[in-house]
């Protein structure tokens, strides 16, 4: 709540420019028989609870396949056989983008996996006699380590760049602290509402995170202190009309995932941390730093909202402090630090004997 006698400043939302008349675009795939089966399948995905983002991604992949089939005169689902799908998989493997680079294995996997779901649905609904994609082997996805990991010093430098003397800086400091404390995704931060914060129990409720799954995560004391200060001092000055969004923009509207990422990247640049990534870097840093401090990987799985433990285990390969300590303590070729020159000489004698 505002302090006694405090004069609140309010900002009116910027005037919205009238939208221009929408241009009519012609769908190049309109009228193709296969496209009708695709749209029926996508409708089924929505009815059965798949997220809109999943439906959009699968529409893109299936339309690409329909376009490829049209070029080869394949018009009906029954025309598509296992050899046809094998040809399409080879097409994706040898395809080259305008810059000459191939599709990554992840992109190939993303183009083929929706086909398995689509043909399984077609067979189950008796639109085709058998599922030609039942034995389609998807590319094996490589397990990459995160491209960059922030150190504790780098994280603290980024957090310190947000100036809490202004409402905008105070909002950004609270948002950065919350990201590092909880490891939330940018989409999850943008969805947060006022009632999702339980300061008494230091808990945060994440509603419909990735995969439309809810979870509860604890909030650190420092992050919670900044958050409460933001709610008391900054948010009342930023919000234009009362609504439930936790974080709001300079004009009082709910922040978007892009807004969150842009502000994290901005403070990274201010702090001189030039590493690829933005919001996810704080998520990676939180997981790695907790592992190095002794956290169990299954606890991190629950905090990060990973459906599979194998996704969380990637951080065990990044967190090498424990491995380094064991290596230093047990490797026979180690050189222990000596307190004096005599001790150092004594320490080196076994090594010299070995060389002889």
Describe the secondary-structure layout.
Blueprint: H1 33-47, H2 52-71, H3 82-94, H4 105-124, H5 152-160, H6 167-182, H7 186-191, E1 197-198, E2 203-206, E3 215-218, H8 221-238, H9 257-270, H10 279-292, H11 297-304, H12 309-312, H13 314-318, H14 321-330, H15 341-355
Antiparallel strand pairs: 1-2, 2-3
Notable characteristics:
single chain; 356 residues; mainly alpha; DNA polymerase, domain 1; hpI Integrase, Chain A; 3-stranded antiparallel beta sheet; 15 helices; 3 strands; 53% helix; disordered C terminus; DNA integration; DNA recombination; DNA-binding; Tyrosine recombinase XerD
Q: Return the domain count.
A: 3
Distance between the termini: 77 Å
Helix/strand/pairing class, anyone?
Answer: mainly alpha
Main beta sheet strand tally, sense and closure: 3 strands, antiparallel
Low-confidence stretches: 6-17, 338-356
**Arithmetic mean pLDDT:** 83
Task: Kindly state the number of beta strands.
Answer: 3
**Backbone shape:** globular
CATH 2nd-level architecture of the largest domain? Orthogonal Bundle
Q: Strand fraction band?
A: under 5%
Rg computed from alpha carbons, rounded to a whole number of angstroms: 27 Å
Task: Explain this structure.
It is a single chain. With 356 residues, the chain is mostly helical. It has three domains: 33-124, Tyrosine recombinase, N-terminal domain (DNA polymerase, domain 1); 152-318, Intergrase catalytic core (hpI Integrase, Chain A, Orthogonal Bundle), CATH 1.10.443.10; 321-355, no CATH class. It is built from 15 helices and three strands. A three-stranded antiparallel β-sheet has the order 1-2-3. Helix 2 (52-71) packs across helix 4 (105-124). The longest helix has 20 residues, at 52-71. It is globular. The model is unreliable at 6-17 and 338-356 (pLDDT under 50).
């Amino acid at each position: 709540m505002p302090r006694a006698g405090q004069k609140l400043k309010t900002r009116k939302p910027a005037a919205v420019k009238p939208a221009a008349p929408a241009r009519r675009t012609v769908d190049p795939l309109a009228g193709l028989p296969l496209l009708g089966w695709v749209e029926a399948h996508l409708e089924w995905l929505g009815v059965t609870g798949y997220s809109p983002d999943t439906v959009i991604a699968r529409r893109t992949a299936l339309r690409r396949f329909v376009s490829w089939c049209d070029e080869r005169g394949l018009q009906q689902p029954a025309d598509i056989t296992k050899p046809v799908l094998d040809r399409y998989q080879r097409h994706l493997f040898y395809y080259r983008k305008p810059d000459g680079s191939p599709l990554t294995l992840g992109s190939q996997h993303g183009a083929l996996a929706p086909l398995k779901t689509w043909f399984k649905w077609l067979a189950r609904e008796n639109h085709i006699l058998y599922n030609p994609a039942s034995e389609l082997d998807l590319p094996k996805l490589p397990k990459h380590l995160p491209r960059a990991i922030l150190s504790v010093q780098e994280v603290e430098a980024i957090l310190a760049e947000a100036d809490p003397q202004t409402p905008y800086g105070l909002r950004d400091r609270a948002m950065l602290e919350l990201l590092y404390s909880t490891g939330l995704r940018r989409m999850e931060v943008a969805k947060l509402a006022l009632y999702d914060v339980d300061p008494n129990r230091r808990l945060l409720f994440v509603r419909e995170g990735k995969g439309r799954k809810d979870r509860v995560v604890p909030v650190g004391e420092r992050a919670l202190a900044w958050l409460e200060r933001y709610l008391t001092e900054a948010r009342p000055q930023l919000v234009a009309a009362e609504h439930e969004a936790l974080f709001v923009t300079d004009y009082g509207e709910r922040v978007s995932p892009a807004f969150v990422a842009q502000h994290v990247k901005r403070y990274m640049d201010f702090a001189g941390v030039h590493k690829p990534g933005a919001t996810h870097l704080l998520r990676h840093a939180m997981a790695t730093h907790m592992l190095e401090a002794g956290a169990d990987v299954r606890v991190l799985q629950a905090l990060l909202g990973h459906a599979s433990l194998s996704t969380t285990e990637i951080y065990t390969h990044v967190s090498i402090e424990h491995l380094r300590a064991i290596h230093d303590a047990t490797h026979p070729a180690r050189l222990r630090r000596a307190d004096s020159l005599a001790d150092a000489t004594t320490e080196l004698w076994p090594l010299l004997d070995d060389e002889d």
